[in-house]
Design a protein that fits this description.
By secondary structure, the protein is of the alpha/beta class. The protein is about 55% helix and about 10% strand.
């Protein structure tokens, strides 16, 4: 009777997912916002509630490549409920990962009618040392959201709807909503939705097939309206050119990373190929559909420790399910004892523990985390100016703090900090290691730049955003470190040359050039970026 009613075991899968989340929390409990979080939060609270779903000039400030507006809705909701507090974001993130593991186990159990299939899927997911550290980067939560809606969609499609009009309408609506939310969370799940549509049509589940088709059409229409159509890669060149830029050494380094972080899954895959080769290959091919969108993001292969964990997240979940299903077919099941799963548990625990310890150490030593932690804990009632090195990218937090009534300014312009100091404002000054420095010595490290003329930096290509490509090219003496500052965002880009499809600046976005050598600094007057949707 247990095998005939897998839904009765949903409590077990949810409990296991919750246990995984609780195990991850102690390692990451002190994490704060990182990388793009400040920018996403700032955009989420300043944009109209649903503006990002249909207003290109709003959404493209998040991305001109990917259409994932759900993340802005979640960030805004979290800000309005909890303010600029990192802990609720962490709980949401690890909760999503745990819930995805639970639903993957529930689906494998339901598909095979064997409890051990669900247990195996969860153990394999738990052993992926690339997955759980991802929770420390909140801006990846839409990958988990997309997986959540996709797994709910898979569970929904297990049953053919009854013939009554009400039940068929409900099946159509449920398929449409879940598929559309999965796509709006992350388009990496598009191949899965397309494959499920083909499966539903083949099985003559018409209401569900219609719902999936409508979801794909609505998503495609919204994406085309907001982002337009482009065959360019992230560097503003063709996707083929981006892929051709991958070197053999890069692929070898990626393969080493994948083997190190997916060892147990790879061993289980080999065992499944021995026991049930054809079924395993079939399942792997289906899982590989979720790798296709990653081909448009070769940076995942070039820098796997920074990007591959989230971009391969959907594929990793699919592979865990594919192996668990293959090893629990009727032909394969008699050939291996289920108690072997217990041997996998220590491996999974050890690998995840090691990965989380490494991540915990990285977070503890990360200068950006140190600075952000102090900013979030600041309780200034009077104007406060915070001076950081150009490496710090979380300047957007100042606008969030301002909305909470805190007069805060984050800058990398030491001359601006000197002016604020002369006006009697409190100054916090941080070094590159995230340590507080004595503000009284500020003038010693902010001397005028000498020996390079009144304009040490020349614009070869004016900073601009044209037809989705953000670009500039600056020229200066090789002895100088140069770049561009965006004062409204409290951030600096330390690059003399840039050409990428990243984000759209605001219309009339101010910027200033900077150059420095040792303790000598030069900053230009404010200038305005060129923002255009047409070729110039």
């Amino acid at each position: 009777m247990i095998h005939q009613h897998p839904a009765r075991w949903m409590g077990l899968w949810l409990a296991q997912g919750l246990l995984l989340s609780l195990c991850a929390y102690p390692y990451l409990s002190h994490v704060v916002f990182s990388d793009d979080d400040g920018h996403i939060l700032q955009l989420a609270i300043e944009a109209p509630y649903l503006g990002a779903y249909y207003m290109s000039e709003v959404y493209q400030q998040l991305s001109v490549v990917h259409y994932t507006p759900v993340v802005l809705t979640i960030y805004r909701l979290m800000f309005e409920l909890f303010g600029v507090t990192a802990t609720p974001f962490l709980i949401l993130q690890i909760g999503l990962l745990g819930l995805c593991a639970a639903l993957a186990g529930a689906w494998c159990h339901r598909h095979t009618q064997q409890v051990s299939a669900g247990l195996m899927a969860i153990l394999l997911i738990a052993s992926l040392s690339s997955v759980w550290p991802m929770a420390a980067r909140f801006y990846t939560l839409h990958y988990g959201l997309g997986a959540l809606f996709s797994l709910l969609l898979l569970l929904h499609l297990q049953n053919k709807p009854h013939s009554t009009a009400v039940q068929q309408t409900l099946a159509l609506a449920t398929s449409f909503v879940l598929a559309l939310l999965a796509l709006l969370s992350k388009e990496i799940y598009a191949p899965l939705v397309l494959a499920l549509w083909g499966w539903a049509a083949f099985r003559k589940h018409r209401p569900q097939a219609i719902g999936l088709l409508l979801a794909m059409l609505v998503y495609a229409g919204l994406r085309l309206h907001v982002l337009g159509f482009s065959t360019e890669g992230r560097a503003g060149n063709s996707l083929l050119a981006d892929l051709q830029s991958l070197q053999a050494g890069t692929l070898v380094d990626f393969a080493k990373w994948y083997v190190q972080t997916h060892a147990l899954l790879l061993l289980a895959t080999v065992l499944a190929l021995v026991l049930r080769p054809l079924q395993t290959l079939k399942n792997i091919l289906i899982a590989c559909l979720l790798v296709l969108p990653v081909l448009a993001a070769p940076h995942a292969i070039k820098a796997p420790t920074l990007h591959a964990d989230r971009l391969f997240f959907a594929f990793d979940l699919a592979m865990c399910c594919a192996v668990a299903l293959a090893m629990h077919t009727k032909a394969a099941a008699p050939h291996w004892p289920k108690w072997v799963l217990l041997l996998a548990l220590p491996w999974g625990v050890f690998s995840t523990h090691a990965a989380m310890q490494t991540k915990q150490q990285q977070l503890t030593n990360d200068p950006s985390q140190k600075i952000t932690r102090q900013i979030l804990n600041a309780q200034a009632l009077q104007p406060l100016t915070i001076l950081t090195w150009p490496d710090y990218q979380q300047g957007g937090l100042m606008r969030l703090k301002a909305r909470q009534g805190m007069p805060l300014r984050i800058t990398q312009n030491c001359q601006e900090a000197l002016l604020a100091q002369s006006q009697g404002q409190e100054i916090w000054r941080f070094d590159r290691q995230g340590q507080r420095l004595d503000p009284l010595t500020l003038s010693e490290g902010c001397q005028p730049l000498l020996g390079h003329g009144p304009e040490p930096v020349t614009e070869i290509i004016h900073p601009s955003f044209i037809k989705g490509v953000l670009q500039w090219q600056l020229q200066a003496s090789p002895a100088l470190q140069i770049g561009i500052q965006f004062p409204d965002r409290g951030m600096t880009v330390t690059a003399s040359h840039l050409r990428e499809r990243l984000v759209r600046p605001r219309n009339g976005e101010p910027y200033r050039l900077y150059a420095h050598q040792g303790t000598q600094w030069w900053f230009s007057d404010l200038r305005i970026m060129l923002v255009s949707d047409s070729a110039q």
